[in-house]
Amino acid sequence: MAVYFKPIANEFDRFLNAHLNSLSSTNDPESNQPGATAENRNKMSKYWGGSFNARLDLTETPNNYLVHADLPGIPKDQVHISVKDDILTLSGERTPQKQEGKDVHKHIVERSQGKFSRSLRLPPNANVDDIKATMEHGVLELVVGKKEKEDGTKTIAIQ
User: Fold this and answer.
1) What pTM was computed for the model?
2) What Cα–Cα distance (Å) separates residue 69 from each residue in 55, 60, 105?
3) Alpha-carbon distance 49 to 93, whole Å?
4) How does pLDDT run across 48-90, given as a tens digit for each residue?
5) Of 27, 98, 106, 128, whose CB neighbour count within 10 A is largest?
6) Rounded to whole angstroms, how far apart are CA atoms 79 and 135?
7) What is the secondary structure of 50-88 as a DSSP string?
């Protein structure tokens, strides 16, 4: 009998993120004071790695690996992409929308904000020198080329 835990893990992940987000914004007395700074409002993100959780997919085609990351509301100049030791890292920050006037009171705040960072290990045959990135409608797409297969045989041309 096979047991499939992914739906349970996804629900737990969602619950944990929602709980940490609520700790970072509404339950912190310093963050709810009039005139509270953005630093106080987001101070939990320093400890929990950010309150915004970028979701991503990694797909393999015959010639490439495709990474799609949902980054709604984040301009492309706020997204940073790096590769070190075959670890691909996406990071950035979703800043809150500023509302003019001191008579503005938020009653419901459900959209996540703050810094994010997602890292994943690239497969061994991924060519880190062949990565192209595009971003459209809040979806980041990375196309990572594959290294050519080597069978260990070297061909030598006769001169």
Assistant:
1) 0.60
2) 6, 15, 32
3) 11
4) 444 567 889 999 999 999 999 999 888 899 999 999 999 999 9
5) 128
6) 10
7) -S---EEEEEE-SSEEEEEEE-TT--GGGEEEEEETTEE
The whole-angstrom separation of Cα 129 and Cα 9 is: 34
CA–CA separation, 69 vs 131, rounded Å?
A: 15
Q: Which tens digit of pLDDT belongs to each residue from 95-131?
A: 877 777 778 777 787 777 788 888 999 999 999 999 9
CA count, 13 A, side-chain hemisphere, 63: 3
Q: For residue 17, which of 69, 41, 55, 53 has the smallest C-alpha distance? A: 53
